[in-house]
Design a protein that fits this description.
Number of helices: 1
Distance between the termini: 47 Å
Strand order of the largest sheet: 1-2-3-4-9-10-11-12
Number of strands: 12
Helix content: under 10%
Order of helices and strands: HEEEEEEEEEEEE
Number of domains: 2
Shape: elongated
């Protein structure tokens, strides 16, 4: 009887971790002229702000038709909190009720609150540069907007001027 309960408990613990165990970000890229769709996939963690000046490895793969682009994405600034307005209030109360002895007991009260709401995070910006291999390589340059959950969108232009829309 103890073994099934232990296995059930272990399964519950693993199930609670499941949402945190997600794969690397991926999405789609669409040619704005023809509507041709492709896929884009990022290496996990590559959509976080970069610290230091270390060497950058390829961290993104884009497949559009028969063309495969490989390159790097860099998030160039960190999410900063948007300014939050100060939330405050003041209140007055007064009265003159009867007490248990039949006499009046006047009172006057003042209260106030002042607090700053939690900061709201805004998205981060970055860029992506990728190219194909071969004798006549093609390049794709993109601007990205990414939130803290590594979801985002962008606009891309290839070496011949074709524009693409990007979601991930």
């Amino acid at each position: 009887m103890k073994r099934p309960l232990m296995l059930l408990g272990l399964a519950a613990v693993l199930a609670s971790c499941a949402p945190a165990l997600v794969g690397p970000p991926s999405g789609r890229i669409v040619n704005t002229s023809t509507g041709q769709e492709g896929t884009i996939s990022f290496v996990g963690g590559s959509l976080q702000p970069r610290t230091g000046t270390g060497r950058l490895d390829n961290n993104v793969t884009i497949q559009i038709g028969e063309q495969t682009y490989v390159g790097r994405s860099v998030i160039i600034d960190t999410a900063s909190p948007a300014p939050s307005p100060l939330d405050f209030g003041i209140g007055f109360n007064f009265g003159n009720p009867w007490d248990n002895m039949g006499s009046r007991d006047p009172y006057f009260g003042v209260n106030g609150t002042a607090r700053t709401p939690a900061p709201r995070l805004v998205s981060r910006t970055g860029n992506l540069i990728a190219r194909t291999d071969g004798n006549a390589p093609r390049t794709l340059t993109c601007t990205l907007t990414v939130d803290v959950q590594e979801h985002g969108y962008g606009e891309c232009t290839d070496s011949s001027g074709v524009r693409y829309a990007l979601q991930f």
